[in-house]
Structures are given as structure tokens and as C-alpha cells.
Amino acid sequence: MNPPTVPTPRIMIVDDTAENLQLLEAFLRNLQYQVFALPSGEMALRAAAKEKPDLILLDIVMPGLSGYEVCQRLKADPVLAEIPIIFLSALDEAWDKVRAFEVGGVDYVTKPIQVEEVRMRILTHLELSRQRNELRAHVEKLQELERLREDLTHMIIHDLRSPLAVVELNLELIKSVLDTRDPEILEPLADATSHARRLAEMISQLLDVGRLESGRMPLTFAECDLLDVVQSVQKSVAGLGGGRPINLTQSGSTTSQCDSELVSRVLGNLLINAFKFTPEGGTVDLSVEGSEDAVRVRVSDRGKGVPAELQRAIFEKFGQASRRAGRPGFGVGLAFCRLAIEAHGGQIGVQSEVGKGSTFWFSIPRKCLPSTATPTPVGQTGTAG
Q1: How far from chain centre, in Å, is Cα 257?
Q2: Residue 37's pLDDT band (boundaries 50, 70, 90)?
């Protein structure tokens, strides 16, 4: 198979001096470039829109539009903005060169023209442009592969729900028909049921993470008191704490516009995590603090803490940092929490010191509308305290 043919670079020369045009055109044609020599900025703009060049050599002082104005117009056009522009000018003041780079030029050659210098600069910027285009193509391909992976993951996860629901139903059915109190039977059955429910919860979280990332998660914003939400969640998860009490404190006004169900799920995740990593006999601290613009919720455990270098990674979907930090799971729960809080226009993070426990916190603005929901891609999150 023959290698693909590389198209000959197209170079546009714009200069109102005929001698400069003739010199450069002859020199570049001799180097086997396609050359378009034009005497004015207006003609250059029309020609570039008709047939996009790979590089432009542009004079500055010309009748009508100056080189600066031509460059600005080219950079304002999304189709033409990335064409490398090398200014050619007799202007030799530092300000002239600064201005050329400010409007988008990539290089500056002072007249009288030295053709070998121009040749080397053209080669350099054509190669940089080629590498940039190649990198963009690779990025686009990776993005497409990522979209395909996400679609496949979503499909598989969605299809797991039905068989898992059958497993849960049959476990409950077996439990209901068994006429026994034998712990050797009931305990493994209860354990299997618990793990099936946990799998169902993880599947739901994965699907919700996908919906939050794509903006397809329906949110219902209404005025509510976050203290009421916190107290309700506290009661619902208290039985999962293994005897670890929750110390709740509150300060300031705690009303906010939010999706109370989504916030409840976030807080439930954080409290269950705090139970997991607080030793037996320890306590979990929970606080709700109102400020002028936002309401902040903090959940503090008595665990081993999260190393500083992992504190951003634990909010990533499918991140392995949770395992390296001694935290079980796939990082899906915290990824869900981050996206849910960012959908409120809020922030989430962690303050932690190894050996001294962790404080996971989130803040929600007092006023938030669905249109302000702008979650960032998983892997980018603030952890300011």
C-alpha cells in the first residue's frame, strides 16, 4: 500500500510592495509551495475565506486595512483563526512587535527580507501547525472512544438491573418460606441480601452519575430547611452506624433552594462512609452552618484519613484512589456526591490529615435555579476548606 499523499502547503503572501511579492513568490514556488501573492488586506481576507491557506506572510503598513486589522479579522473567524501568521515589516520598534503578537501573530520578520530566514521560519511554523492538527485529531479520536466506552458502560449497567432485581426478589422469597431460625442459614442469607441491595445501589449511582454528567438528571428545586433534611437523613441511617452516635450541631439560618431528595442522598453517602471508617466506640460529627450566601454541611469521621495527594482523586468516577487509601468501592459514591452538589451550583471537598480522620463538606448557595447547574467533568473538583 502506498503511503498517503501529503498535500503541498498553501502559503499566502500579503504585501503592497510589488518587489517583495515577486521576490517571495518566486522563492517559495521554487521550494514547491503553492503560493498566493496579494497586494492588499481586503483581497487577502476574501481569498482566505474562499481557499484557506496553511500559513500567511503578512505586511503591516498597507493602504486600506493594516496587517494588524487583517490579522484580527482572521482570528475572529473560527474557520481561519488557527492559520499561523508571520508578520513581515520594516517597523522595528519593540511596540510594533508586541502589537503583532497581541493580535495573534506567531512570528515577526524585519525587512529587508532575508529569504533563508523566512524559509526556516515557515518550516518551523508549518511543522508546529502539523503537530497541533495531529494532536487535535488524536484528542477527537480519544473523545469519541470515551463516548463509546461511556455508552457501553451505561448499557451494561442498565442491563444488570433486571437480573439483580430477580436475585433480590428470590432471596427475599427464600427467607420468607424458610421455617428455620438456624443462624448458619439465616446469617449467610441476610448477608447475600445485603450485598445484592448494595449492588443495586451502586448500579443506581452509576446510572445517576451518567445522567448528571450529561445534564439529563431531572432536578426539583424548592425552598427547604437543610437542617430538616439533615435530621431526616440522620434518623434514616442511624441503624447502620453499628452503635456509633452522630453528634449534630447547627448554627445560623439553614434555608436554601435545593433538590432535597438529591441532597439527602449525598448526605446519606457521606454519613455511611463516616460510619465505615470510624472505629467502634467512636463518634461521627455532623454540622449544618448557615452563612450569608450559602449553607455548609460537614461530616467528620475518626478514620485513618486521606493522604493529601489523593484528596482530589477520591471524587473521580471509577477512581482507584479509594482502594489505595484503604477505602472500599469504586469511587462512584463520591463522584455522585460531587456531581449532585455541583448541579446545585455548590462545592464539595475534603479536609483530612493521615491518622486524624477526615471531614467531608459541601456547601449549597441559598438561591439556586436549575439553569445554574453546571457540573464539571469528573476528575476536576475543588477541595478548599
Answers
A1: 25
A2: very high
